[in-house]
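Hi everyone, sorry if this is the wrong subforum. Our group has a chain we'd like a structural model of before ordering constructs, and none of us has done structure prediction before. Sequence below.
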Amino acid sequence: MQYELKILKGSEKIQHIRLDAASAEEARAQAGAQGYTVLSLRAGGLASSLSQRRSHFPLLLFSQELLSLLTAGLSLIEALEALTEKERHADIKKVYDGIVAKLYEGQTFSGALGDFPAIFPPLYVATVRASEKTGDMTEALSRYVSYQTQIDQVRKKIVSASIYPALLLGVGGLVIVFLMGYVVPKFSAVYEGSNTELPWMSKLLLQWGTLIESHGLAMLSGAGAALFAGLYALSLPQVRAALMRKLWQIPALGERMHVYQLARFYRTLSMLLKGGTPIVNALSMVSGLLQPELRNRLEQATASIREGHAISHAMELYGLTTPVALRMLRVGERTGEMGEMMERIAAFYDEEMARWVDWFTKLFEPILMAFIGVVIGLIVILMYLPVFDLAGNIQ
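Answer:
Right subforum, don't worry. Here is the predicted structure as tokens:
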């Protein structure tokens, strides 16, 4: 759920930001964790969310182009001015102009990006800020591009695996609606004038056809209203949070969602640690990526690490790891390459997730096809069953 917040940080001017959160309280907590004072908050709603997606700032493309220009030898301001000159979208050009203006005023690049919190997330700003201390801006941008590309690849695998089942459901649903809404009422009118004794299941089907023919417009209006009500309900944070809790309670699906969350968690944590962000600060910054239940566990794990416990021990104690990942964390603690090891953990989780998605689609698609075929076949058989009986009587 998108929330629009009016915020104040220190003595700076009032700003507006957008945050993704399951509830208003969670949005306030996220803003507070970033050091903001929330002056007002309101839900963005479904229409606002769709509008925001359409005008989304291309952060990955911006990072890739900036990285290319810096690698080619341009200074930061020269690179940003070049991006400003080539940009044709007015809103994006305005952001570039604002960043360049703040750099000329003497602000650091991370400070300039931080003045646009609705566009540049805290993770991105923290990565740039850490690179300013070490002088490896190109390395930081390269890490972010690699990170975002890998995150997008996992998301694209899940989306692409969902396309064919969704297409099957859509086409099968349309065929069933056509049969039940047009063909069955026609057959119902034909059989109504005859004195043929119909099987009870055929009677049931044809009564449905008569009902649709008599009250089709009202039923269509009711279906449209139900669809609109469902979409509206999904835009409410309470409904979405309750739905996510139910999905997490499904054993197989909940386990996969847990693995997906951990993959994002460890990959983001790896990027921050490689950039020089301290572990406690990094953990507080990535908490927004997790579901509320895992976020509570992370807060407890962070407190444990702050008290001096090992990272592997805290992650194991609060259920933020798996047996394989736990061993890899312990190796990272021994070698001192915790950022690199977390990257490998995320890659391991991604491969596991990809295998599960592949297995699930190979199993689910034929089952779905068989189910749709059985439903359509049953409707057709029940429509023609009286004809078959009549032909048998004639013989």
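For your construct planning: Residues 45-55 have pLDDT under 50 and may be disordered. Residues 27 and 196 are 65 Å apart (CA to CA).
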